[in-house]
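Thread title: Can someone regenerate the structure for this chain?

I was given the following input by a collaborator and told the matching structure tokens would be attached. They weren't. Posting the sequence so someone can regenerate them.
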Amino acid sequence: MTTKSPNQVQLLTCGERRRLKYGAAPSVFDFKNTSTTQESDRAKRKRLRESTQDTCTPMIEDLPIYMDELIVHHEVVVDQSSTSISTSMPEEMCSTAEKEIQCDIPTLGRFSIEGMKLDTKMLSYYTGLNGYDHFMLLFNILGPAAFDLNYKCGLLSPQDQLFLTLMKLRQAKEDVELAMLFKVCESTVSKIVTTWINFLYFQLKELEEQFWPSKDIIKEHMPTDFAKKFPNTRVILDATEQPIHKPSNVEAQSKTWSSYKHKNTLKTMVGVTPNGAVSYVSSTYGGSVSDRQIIEHSTLLDVGKFDAGDSIMADRGILVQDLFANQNVFINTPTFVKGKSQLDPEEIV
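Best answer:
Regenerated them for you:
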């Protein structure tokens, strides 16, 4: 049996696995030589954590490593004059080195009307208003009651609550998205929207009579082509239906079921002037109510609403000629096909 030289690899059999005997294989790489080993980043961070228990001043040469620790403990500082935030050291680690490690991270932050003050385009996109001055005009019209509503949200100002509500109405955004944009919870968004819609209704309801323009104003702003063909038109009427969740009450299900939309809806009669301005909005009824029933209970039949000789343009389904006959108001509706495949030439003219 031959004897192996010291430089040869010796094997130690342990069970079924063969392993190198410790110290059997020489190496030119001395991993255990502490004199040439550099401190690892992980060990340096550990040393820094232990050292910060007694002092809050980090070594300047260790700042690149120290930044990793700050990512976990950073605080956000919002700059009102720009759309950015900066990360900085926590107060317990404050030092002169703080200025060396601050950085700017672009973000929109919390949505607010002040943040949109100079961005007229986005404010118009979210609310439909012409700008910040237009928004503040609406807010001031609502009066001081806006600061004393039954539901008060300490996180958002009354102006921001109105801004949130207008975004909900204009963009039909979900509560979860609004909660993310305004940094509040979904239940808060729901309460704000419900409170402000009711508040807007009662405050703006007083202006209902101002929405109905005089005949002279309508003629002044009537489109030229429209004036040539329908010069006496006072209002254009049509009904709109808003889908709703199916009510749990059986009677409410029946009253809100729309045979036209094949779902539960709320129905409202809306009127606009020939140039497109909304001039009339009726009360809201269940989807099963007919257009005629809405008009029968509306203020359109009030004496003095129309002048003799006025005409109402309406959809063919609004059959209310007899209701306005005593006021000498004509209902202008499209001609019915009456079961035929097409209209006669005389009817088209």
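Residues 41-106 form one domain.
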